[in-house]
Structure formats: structure tokens, C-alpha cells
Design goal:
Elements lengths: L6 H40 L4 H17 L19 H14 L6 E5 L4 E8 L4 E9 H6 L2 H16 L2 H22 L8 H33 L1 H31 L2 E2 L2 H10 L3 H12 L12 H7 L21 H11 L11 E2 L2 H17 L3 H5 L6 H4 L5 H5 L8 H22 L3 E2 L9 E3 L2 E3 L1 H10 L4 H11 L1
Parallel strand pairs: 1-3, 4-5
Antiparallel strand pairs: 2-3, 6-7, 7-8
Helix pairs in contact: 1-2, 1-6, 1-7, 2-6, 3-5, 5-7, 5-8, 6-7, 7-8, 8-9, 13-17, 17-18
């Protein structure tokens, strides 16, 4: 349906990838030789090496250490979705592979991120590679079956087009550059600058080919599954990527750190209900209209949708916590969480809670981590004095510990957040219970009294609530 890339195209890309890989180590060898030449010339012409020679010799050794290839062991990117456990998903894979006229991937993995990928897994010490595909857990929650099939077809397009066969060379070069920069970072001798420049060159050279790969994979997916469904899937992935990341960072990870876990997709469904739809639509439009960058590895979404004749408009944020294409959901989520732990066996020690219990169980613990180290400083700020204290420029100094690396505005913002924690923690100590869902403003309730502490703090700072209103609230709280 979509012809694979020509032999000339593949050969050119293969030679480019190999040249970049060799060029990276040639750059390192040239820098090593230049540094080594200084002590050599000092010894030859003066009979002894000076301090600069010894420093250059140390720099040369440092570069060898930074560039020395490390053997990387393949790590599964997530739990495997097998044919036996996920028959409906594999039925889609069978259909797409049959339509594309290409062998099936050997392995399919469940990912934590809201994305998909095509790659290959090394076997026999890297002498043979097996094609694999990864699918993010949230894709099953917000994509329809036709849209998910389009995503699978796009990833299959990378296998059909030969991208995955060439990918390891590009990956090795990118990893080598990244590892060298990481090891040289902080050397205080500017040794990282040549490799940083080479990294920019690498992106400039490889990015156009990467964008071309995506266009070709889109062509195959639109022919196999329909451009309408591929376009819709691309938009939804763009919309949900940042939302899912916010859910993971702001809700899931803090919950795991406290020793608890709750059903992921059910929590995300609740989280989405709290999203400010209009603000999200504005953010989406800002993201898709951003200027193109020469180092982008993917074409801009608006360009991809134009090619597919699909409108570039945000879709409805609809999420299901019980996706029909992913059976044994609880087991899948448990395996996914375990794969992200330092020690997967610790999954059995995490206490399972419901999302109805989440607010009351987790949020007070998070507030305590901020309040208790500063308790003496907080106790010197009675709740009745909040309106004045929030506008005190010295508030951050009264509450902070550690070094000061923040700007004046950042200090003010941070101090007000800490005051919100103090207010919420105090309400909880006064018998209020947290009743808010993940993603919502923290809301505490005691009898008929309901308070959103962080909104109160923001309103006091903005002077949209008066000192008299605050005094009445303090009386109500007791």
C-alpha cells in the first residue's frame, strides 16, 4: 500500500548515520590529540612538562574516560502485552501487519507515557534484532479502536520503511553524545563545548530525515486506517500528553512515594473532569502554532494534519477507565507500576486505596512534609495575621531553610504556596477532612463548612477578598 523507501534512500541514510557515529569519535580523538600534544611539545623543547602540560594531560584522560563506550543491556520499556493475555489488541496487530504486508512485531510493550514507538530489541549479543512496538497505557483510555489502529499502523510504517533498521546507529550516536556531555558536565575546562557543538550538528543533519520518516509513516497509516482517524489520534495524543504527564507528576508519583497506589486510568478519568477546558484549548492552540525548529524530529502537528486534510481543532476530552482493548486492566497497571519502581517486588508493599480515600489519605501527608520542618516559623504566624503576612517581602526568609537561589518574585510565590500548605494543614488538624478529587483544588470540609485554602490565599494576595471576610472565616474555623 505504501512502498518501502528506495534502496538509494536507505543507503544514503545508513551512510549518514555511520559517518556521524564515526565523526563523533573522530572529534574526540582530535581533541585528545590536541591536548596530548601540549605536554609532548613541552617535554621535547624544554625538557620538562609544566603545570599547563599536566592539566592538558589530565584533560586528555578525562576525555578518554567520557567517550569510552559502555555496554548497555536491553531493558524492557514496560510489561509485555502477549497474545495470550491481550487477544483483542493482537487481532488489531494481525490486521495491520497483514494489510501492510509486513511481519508482525515480536513483542509489544505497555508504556507509562502517552505515546507509542517502534524499535528493535537486540538478540545474540546484538548480532540480530527483533522488531518491537510500545503503546502507552493512556492511549487505550482516550483513543477509539479505529484511532488506536491508526497509531499502530503509523508505528508499523517505521518497520515497513526501514527506519527501525537504521535507528540503532542514530540511537548509538545520540546516546554517545549525551553520555559524553553528562560525564564532561562540570569539568570547568570547557571540554564539553566541542561535543555540544557536534550534538547540534547531529540534530541538524538527522532531523530532516526523521521528519521524512514520520511523513512516510503517516502515509501508510492513513491508507490502512483512514486519514480521519489518524488525524484525530494525533490531536488527542497532543492534547493528552501534557495532561497525563501532569497527572503522573502531581498525583501518581507523590502517592507512590507515600507508600500507596490507586487505579491509574480511573484516577486519570477523574483528573480530566477537573480540567479547565477553555484554558486547555488555548494551550493547545499555542502549542500547535509555535514556530518550527530546524532540530525538530517530528513535523509540526498543524502540517501533518494539513496533509491528512484533518482540521487542527482540539477534540473532546473523553476518557474511559475500562478500555475494551486492554483486558486484565488491574494486572496491567500493577505490572506497569512495578516496572517503574527501583525494586519491582516492592509493589506488594504498596497499600491499595480508592480515589475516594485519596485526598484524605495523601494530601495531609504531603502538606506535613512542608509544614513540619518549618513548624516553629509557621507557629509565629497566626492564621488571623495572614492578610498582612502574605504581602510581607520578608516572609520567604522567615520560612525558608537552605541556600537562596530564587529571584524575588519566585521567593514571594514559593512563600505563598507554603502558607497555603500551613493553612490546609491547620484546617486538617482542626477536624476538617479533604474531600477533593485528584486534579481539583484541595477542598476541606467539616460539617456544613467547606473551605478551599489555596483559593483563599490567592484571593487574599489579589485583594479580591477582604480582611473582614478572612476574620469571619477564622471565627468559623475556630
Amino acid at each position: 500500500l505504501a512502498p518501502p523507501q528506495s534502496g538509494w534512500w536507505l543507503a544514503r541514510r545508513a551512510l549518514t548515520a555511520l559517518a556521524l557515529y564515526v565523526g563523533f569519535y573522530a572529534t574526540g580523538a582530535a581533541l585528545f590529540g590536541a591536548l596530548l600534544s601540549l605536554p609532548w611539545m613541552q617535554m621535547r623543547y624544554t625538557g620538562e612538562a609544566g603545570l599547563s602540560g599536566f592539566l592538558a594531560l589530565g584533560g586528555a584522560g578525562y576525555i578518554v574516560w567520557a567517550l569510552w563506550p559502555r555496554r548497555e543491556k536491553w531493558l524492557d520499556p514496560g510489561p509485555e502485552l502477549t497474545r495470550a493475555t491481550q487477544p483483542r489488541l493482537w487481532a488489531i496487530l494481525d490486521r495491520v501487519a497483514n494489510d501492510a504486508g509486513h511481519p508482525l512485531p515480536r513483542h509489544v510493550y505497555l508504556l507509562t507515557e502517552a505515546q507509542a514507538f517502534a524499535s528493535s530489541r537486540p538478540r545474540w549479543f546484538g548480532l540480530r534484532r527483533e522488531p518491537v512496538i510500545g503503546l502507552g497505557l493512556p492511549l487505550f483510555a482516550f483513543l477509539s479502536e479505529r484511532e488506536l489502529r491508526a497509531v499502530v499502523a503509523h508505528e508499523m510504517g517505521h518497520h515497513v520503511g526501514g527506519d527501525v533498521r537504521l535507528g540503532p546507529w542514530q540511537y548509538r550516536t545520540a546516546r554517545a553524545i549525551g553520555a559524553a556531555l553528562h560525564r564532561l558536565d562540570g569539568s570547568n575546562a570547557f571540554l564539553h563545548l566541542p561535543f555540544q557543538a557536534y550534538g547540534r550538528l547531529f540534530l541538524r543533519v538527522t532531523s530532516p530525515a526523521s521528519r521524512e520518516q514520520e511523513v512516510r509513516a503517516d502515509e501508510l497509516a492513513s491508507r490502512l486506517s483512514g486519514s480521519r482517524f489518524l488525524g484525530s489520534a494525533l490531536v488527542l495524543v497532543e492534547q493528552h500528553s501534557s495532561l497525563w504527564a501532569g497527572f503522573l507528576q502531581g498525583v501518581v508519583i507523590p502517592t507512590l512515594n507515600e507508600g500507596f497506589r490507586a487505579p491509574l486510568l480511573e484516577g486519570y478519568e477523574r483528573y480530566i473532569r477537573e480540567v479547565d477546558v477553555e484554558a486547555h484549548r488555548r494551550d493547545f492552540k499555542d502549542a500547535v502554532l509555535r514556530p518550527a525548529d530546524a532540530e525538530d524530529t517530528h513535523p509540526r502537528l498543524i502540517e501533518r494534519l494539513k496533509t491528512l486534510a484533518t482540521p487542527c481543532e482540539p477534540r473532546e476530552l473523553s476518557v474511559t477507565s475500562n478500555p475494551p482493548l486492554l483486558v486484565h486492566l488491574a494486572d496491567c497497571e500493577s505490572s506497569l507500576i512495578a516496572s517503574n519502581l527501583d525494586r519491582p517486588e516492592l509493589i506488594s508493599e504498596l497499600q491499595v486505596i480508592s480515589w475516594d480515600e485519596w485526598g484524605e489519605t495523601i494530601l495531609p501527608r504531603l502538606w506535613s512534609r512542608v509544614v513540619e520542618p518549618r513548624l516553629e516559623a509557621f507557629e509565629a504566624i497566626p492564621l488571623r495575621s495572614f492578610p498582612g503576612a502574605l504581602k510581607d517581602d520578608d516572609l520567604w526568609e522567615r520560612l525558608r531553610y537552605g541556600i537562596n537561589v530564587f529571584s524575588a518574585e519566585a521567593r514571594r510565590q514559593q512563600a505563598r504556596i507554603w502558607m497555603g500548605y500551613w493553612f490546609a494543614w491547620s484546617l486538617h488538624r482542626a477536624g476538617y477532612r479533604v474531600v477533593s478529587s485528584p486534579g481539583a483544588e484541595p477542598r476541606l470540609q467539616r460539617g456544613e463548612s467547606t473551605i478551599e485554602p489555596f483559593i483563599w490565599i490567592r484571593d487574599l494576595v489579589a485583594s479580591t477578598r477582604t480582611t473582614e471576610e478572612w476574620d469571619r472565616l477564622c471565627v468559623e474555623v475556630g
